Structure formats: C-alpha cells, structure tokens
Amino acid sequence: MTMAQEQGFNRIARALYFVAFLLVVTPLMDLVANVYPLSFGDFRWRYGASGLLSGFLMTPLLGVTLGIAVAAVREHRLALRIQGVLAVVAAVLLLVIAALFALDALQLRREAAADIASQFDIAILKAEIKHGSAILALLWLGVAAIRTSGRLGSRRENRGADPSMVVRR
Questions:
Q1: Cα–Cα dist 29/163, whole Å
Q2: 38, 150, 40, 58: which is closest to 96 by C-alpha?
Q3: For the chain, how big is the Rg over CA atoms in Å?
Q4: pLDDT in tens, the chain (169 residues)
Q5: How far is Cα 62 from Cα 60, in angstroms, rounded to an integer?
Q6: Distances (CA, A) of 143 to 65, 82, 140, 149, 169
C-alpha cells in the first residue's frame, strides 16, 4: 500500500469515527430532550423514559458497531479497546435500566385500566425485547472488541518486517 493510500484510508477512518460518534450521541440528545425535565424519583417518568429509550437504541447501536468495525479494520488497538469497554459498560447500564423498567412497569400495571391491560403488556414486552437485544449486541460487540484488541497487539509484535518490502542501498 502506498503512503498516499494509507493517508486516504486514515482520513476516511477519522470521518467514519465522527459519523459513529454522531450516531451514538444525537439520538441520546433527542431522548434527553423528550424526557426533560428529569424526574428519576417518579416511577411513571422512569417507565416513560425507559420505554422511549427502547425506541432510540438501534441508531446508537449502529454507531457503536461502525466505530468498532473501523477500529478493527484499521487495527487501531486503543480505539478498539476503549470502544469495547464502553460497549460493555453501556450493556451493564442498560441491564440496570431494563430491570428498573420491569419493576416500574409492574407498579404501573396495577394502575392500568382492565380494558388496556393487554396493550400495556404488549408495550412492556416490546420494550424489554428491544432492551434485551441491545444488551446482548453491546456485550457481544464489546467483548469481541476487547479480545480483538489484545490479539492485535501480539500480532503486530510477531509480525516484524513486511517480507514484500524491498530494501535498497
């Protein structure tokens, strides 16, 4: 690969990292704007915010996937490790949110009218499936990224000089 090609790929990688960042941050800003003012002490607010979060998860997940893919392809070991750890932390945080959502939903379910109970149950199930899917994907991506970042370091150390390089005096 020529130096110009390498520089071009690095410019593209930086742009893709920025797009990945936007895919993660923009929907989260929209979510906060939709649930503001924050009221963590109110189980109704928590239920609504967690339910909304379930609808916002796919775009940030796509951003995480893009960032990890770019880091893996470009062999950016540190970026891969950082993103992997952040993905695992996000999965654990989302697991806590999903558990609290289930508890808040049970509490709110008691107040729901009998004629909307089945619709309420379907909404809870859909949100929990979305939460669970995102948790699984984040854990899988995160662990894979962390493991891959470790292998990149040992592979680079063992790789040595490129045998296709021709050295002139």
A1: 49
A2: 40
A3: 22
A4: 788 777 888 889 999 999 999 999 999 999 999 999 989 999 899 999 999 999 999 999 999 999 999 999 999 999 999 999 999 999 999 999 999 999 999 888 887 777 777 888 898 999 999 999 999 999 999 999 999 999 886 655 445 445 444 555 4
A5: 5
A6: 12, 11, 5, 10, 46
Q: Using alpha carbons, select from 50, 26, 27 the residue that is nearest to residue 38.
A: 50
DSSP for the chain reads --HHHHHHHHHHHHHHHHHHHHHHHHHHHHHHHHHPSP-TT-HHHHHHHHHHHHHHSHHHHHHHHHHHHHHHHHT-HHHHHHHHHHHHHHHHHHHHHHHHHHHHHHHHHTTS-GGGHHHHHHHHHHHHHHHHHHHHHHHHHHHHHHHHHHHHHHHHHHH-S-TT-----
Q: In this structure, what token pair is assigned to residue 128? A: 């929990």
- Alpha-carbon span 135 to 91, nearest angstrom: 5
